[in-house]
Amino acid sequence: MRCPAPPRSVAALVGQCAYVSMRALWFKRPLVVLGGVGIFFYFGFFLNRGSVTSWTGGGETHEAVRMSRSFSDLEASLSNLTNIIRAFEKKQDAIQKMVEDNRERRAAELGQKQNKQPEADAQEEKKPPKDSKSSKVFPNSPLFKQWGENLSEDDQREAQDLFEKYGYNVFLSDRLPLNRALPDTRDSRCLKKSYPKDLPSLSVVLIYLNEALSILKRALRSIIDRTPKDLLKEIVMVDDNSNNENLKGDLDSYVKMLEQQHPTVRFVRVRHTEQRGLAYARASGWRASSADVVAILDAHIEVHDMWAEPLLTQIKGDRTVVVSPVFDRVNFDDLRVIRYEPAAHAFDWALWCMYEGFTPDYYKLKDGSLPGKSPSVMGIFVAERKFLGEVGVLDEGMRVYGGENVELGIRVSDRPLSGLGSKPFACAVNHDVDPTPKVWTCGGSVEVVPCSKIAHIERYHKPYMRDLGPAMKRNALRVAEVWMDEYKHNVNLAWNLPFENHGFDIGDVSERKKLREKLKCKPFKWYLENVYPKLDPWDDLVAYGGLKNINASMCIDQGPQPGHTPIAYPCYYYGPQITYYRKSGELYVGGIKSHKYNDNRCLTDVNNKDTEPGLYPCKEAMQKGMGIYWDFTQGKTIKNRQTNRCLEIKNKKLLIQECSGQVWEIQNLIKPF
Ligand SMILES: *[C@@H]1O[C@H](CO)[C@@H](O)[C@H](O)[C@H]1NC(C)=O
Ligand SMILES: *[C@@H]1O[C@H](CO)[C@@H](O)[C@H](O)[C@H]1NC(C)=O
Ligand SMILES: *[C@@H]1O[C@H](CO)[C@@H](O)[C@H](O)[C@H]1NC(C)=O
Ligand SMILES: [Mn+2]
Fold first, then answer.
1. Which of 118, 227, 485, 627 is a Cys-bridge partner for 232, taking CB atoms 3.0 to 4.6 Å apart?
2. Nearest ligand to the C-alpha of residue 660?
3. From which residue to which does any coiled coil extend (predicted)?
């Protein structure tokens, strides 16, 4: 799973949420969104937009190291423009502050609960670390920010080595019991539910690449211990060409031992001889499976008690529903479990995943144990095996990482998102009716099931590749090409790529297009209107990019942040200077939001004697009577409709004044305006 930090508390949904790993908690700082509609990550926006080249955004890891690497590349390429560099340094300070804030919040959070670990099933091979006073060998390592206080220097070195290799605390994992207890983070109503006896059988698919042995063992252990014997048919382990040695012999002997202890469970091993990426690995696990239902999971997880029954019950009631458990976060450093609130799995136009509130209908029922409909999945999902095959499993033409989950979400969403999950049927079993439909549509829907919980490590960095950006972009462009019809260019906009000649070879999509035709899938417009109306279609956008004043030869820039005063600046055509002009006359500076619940920042004539322009959330600006609508055509003046004053530059200052005839040029035209 690749998504960013999900909501951590109920408050998240009513107001606030914490994480996108899909953008990780380090940089996606969740903001309070009133009305319970969603969650937004203002900073992530800047990052994604901001990086023309190397910033990967998203993922479980926006770490400072990578940040500064991206920024120093940038600085190098702009080395002759010292003032611009200064601006970016300022930005880095802001980022730093944000990181500190997050750390403080984290510290507070960690102070809250300790999970008790049982003594049993400890891993004998290693003793707990000794208590001895020693200084920090890696004071700047994220691993030691909250953890490892009393480790000897040798142990610190070992722990740091392992952390750098795996992205989580393997040193600690090696010393925790494989069957450690997890806190019960479910809604209390879940404990009172009962589930049908005759549920479909289950294949659990674990995909992994260079996972630590003890993490993988703990995942296996938890699945075996916490899935009813009569439901768990098999565990399919897909190794996407790992190169760590202990995933060979040591893992084999562990699996052999499990096989002997649990003769009813079939263990299937799939090994790729080259790295094929997440989508292919998940699909090859699906191919190797044979039970009624497949659960396709990451291998850095532990399932909670009763995780399978609620999911299987939903699928028993409706074989076309693709379900997801709710993921709790396991910290990469101390491996503690942090409760996440159930939330819908959503995405933005860059196809980064993120959490979002369910629809208002859902919350009206005031029962957080009920399944909720979701526009997409995060990556981990559970589906009826044959149904998944009928609708095309996953797009195996995707590479490395990202996009495949959104593609699945779009593909199987065939019903309006009413906000409610399907009602579990008491007995009507339809998973074994004739599964060969005459004409199948892109049928189905996605649900998040709160009574099913899986603890998932949000890794500090991922093993797939140093920079996931190119793969993300490529896969997103694939999704756009196959599924998004007239909206496909929104993906280019979100990644700041030109519509044509974007430089990515997206591979052959003809099979996926054929699939779409064969399944008679509904148009993307239908999906937007019925399943995911929160996504802003951006359909009245007419131009975007840097906006240059021809007379002064300078660009508009969002100016110091936080702040409300855009400025004139030498053009560098980067995040803070990217503007979006809407047919309505709204002009955004410094970014555009993917979701309707997130307000954009409108250029305003604040309508008083003060001659500086403003940059305010559009709704707020409207309420305060500021002018947010501008008349503009390419190479002409930018004139406020309300005040008839113009946006101009005088002595290198951005002003609003009586029109003197200065003209502007915007970088990219989307349609004539
Ligand atoms: C900076 O470099 C660009 C080309 O890389 C050049 O066109 C421009 O004149 C340079 N600016 C200054 C101030 O040296
Ligand atoms: C580290 O050692 C000190 C003194 O022995 C003790 O007070 C403290 O609780 C220890 N910290 C941890 C995290 O074990
Ligand atoms: C600004 O530049 C445009 C195009 O070069 C020119 O037609 C116009 O007269 C200039 N306006 C002012 C006020 O200098
Ligand atoms: Mn994951």
1. 227
2. 3
3. none
Compute how many other C-beta atoms are within 10 angstroms of the C-beta atom of residue 162.
Answer: 19
**If you measure from the C-alpha of residue 80 to the centroid of ligand 1, how many angstroms do you get, rounded to a whole number?**
6
Closest-CA residue, ligand 2 atom 3, reads: 150
CA–CA dist 512, 443 (Å, integer): 16
Alpha-helical segments (H) within 263-391: 278-288, 308-317, 360-364, 385-390
**Cβ of 660 less than 6 Å from ligand 3:** yes
Given a contact cutoff of 8 angstroms between Cβ atoms, the answer to whether 305 and 226 are in contact is yes
* Residue ranges of the chain with per-residue pLDDT less than 50: 2, 6-92, 94-100, 103-104, 106-120, 419-441
551 within ligand 3 shell (Cβ under 6 A): yes
Given this model, what pLDDT does residue 130 score?
A: 55
Q: Where does residue 78 rank: exposed (0-12), middle (13-18), buried (19+ CB within 10 A)?
A: middle
Give me the residue label for tokens 């199948």: 440
For residue 557, the CA-to-ligand 1 centroid distance in Å is 19
Question: What pLDDT, on the 0 to 100 scale, is given for residue 151?
Answer: 94
Which protein residue has the closest C-alpha to ligand 2 atom 4? 133
Number of H helices, E strands in the chain: 18, 24
Q: Could you tell me if residue 198 is left (phi over 0), alpha (psi between -120 and 50 degrees) or otherwise beta? A: beta
CB 427 within 8 A of CB 300: no
> Which tokens belong to 590?
């410094």
Nearest protein Cα to ligand 2, atom 1: 150
Residue 260 CB burial class (10 angstroms; 0-12, 13-18, ≥19): exposed
Q: Which atom belonging to ligand 2 lies closest to the Cα atom of 150?
A: 1
Strand partners, 655: 648
549 close to ligand 3 (CB < 6 Angstrom): no
pLDDT number for residue 1: 53
Q: Which of 96, 98, 93, 28 is nearest to 59 (CA)?
A: 28
Is-cis flag, bond preceding 118, omega within 30? no
CB 443 within 8 A of CB 371: no
Q: How far is the CA of 458 from the centre of ligand 4 (A)?
A: 6
Yes or no: say if 628 and 602 are a contact pair by the CB < 8 Å rule: yes
User: Which protein residues are within 6 Å of ligand 2, measured from CB?
Assistant: 131, 149-150
What is the reported pLDDT for 610?
A: 66
Pocket test for ligand 3, best of 550, 636, 639, 649 (most atoms within 8 A of CB): 550
- Find the 81 Cα to ligand 1 centroid distance in Å: 8
Give the span between the Cα atoms of 371 and 452, in whole angstroms: 10
User: Which residue has its alpha carbon closest to ligand 3 atom 10?
Assistant: 662
Main-chain phi, psi angles of 75, to 5 degrees: -60, -40
Query: pLDDT tens-digit profile of 627-673?
Result: 999 999 999 999 999 999 999 999 999 999 999 999 999 998 998 87
Test site for ligand 2: of 114, 150, 169, 175, most ligand atoms within 8 A of the Cβ: 150
Domains with residue ranges and CATH for the chain: 10-110 (no CATH), 541-669 (2.80.10.50)
Integer-rounded Cα Rg, in Å, for the chain is 26
Helix (H/G/I), strand (E/B), else coil: 430: coil
